Amino acid sequence: MTYWLFKSEVSTWSWDQQVAKGDTGEEWDGVRNYQARNHMRTMKVGDLGFFYHSQKEKEIVGIVEVIAESHQDSTTDDERWDCVDIKAVRALPNPVTLAMCKEDPRLTEMVLVNNTRLSVQPVADAEWKIILELAGDA
């Protein structure tokens, strides 16, 4: 299994909206960055990801699961843009803020700490466990 982080502005798509979609989930659409798209192209059904509220909140709030592999993004006819479908798995007991990640010396190599603008990014196994620990979910 591979781990990921999906970033969204609360005003665009929030954790509560993701949860409301239930087991049918939702396309992670609208991504227009080649690196983020390429990450989605490598995802497999069953991969897990953190759901991150960007902009003002800047915090990891939940865990999602990839339920459909890369396919054409339905929000565009441009064949260059793909997306995956994800569903909410569970909320974290305590959100993990970007500041917490930056302060933790174990997370200095985490993509989120070093590239806060990338909307879909990989999370290393060790980083996944540390985030769960910080969230009180370990």
Give a count of the beta strands, DSSP E runs of length 2 or more. Answer: 6
| Tally of distinct domains | 1
Q: What is the chains' assembly state?
A: single chain
The parts where pLDDT drops under 50 for at least 5 residues are none
Pfam families: EVE
Protein name: EVE domain-containing protein
Domain EVE: 2-134
Organism: Aliiroseovarius halocynthiae
Provide a quick synopsis of the model:
The protein is α+β, with helices and mostly antiparallel strands and 138 residues long.
Write up what this structure looks like.
The chain has 138 residues and is α+β, with helices and mostly antiparallel strands. It has one domain: ph1033 like domains (ph1033 like fold, Roll). The protein has five helices and six strands; from the N terminus they run E-H-E-H-E-E-E-H-H-E-H. The protein has helices at 15-20, 34-42, 98-103, 111-114, 125-135, and strands at residues 3-9, 26-27, 48-54, 59-72, 82-97, 120-123. A six-stranded mixed beta sheet has the order 2-5-4-3-1-6. A hairpin with a 4-residue loop joins strand 3 (48-54) and strand 4. The two termini are 18 Å apart. The relative contact order is 0.24. The mean pLDDT is 97. It comes from Aliiroseovarius halocynthiae. InterPro entries: 5hmC_binding, EVE_domain, PUA-like_sf, THYN1-like_EVE. Residues 2-134 form the EVE domain.
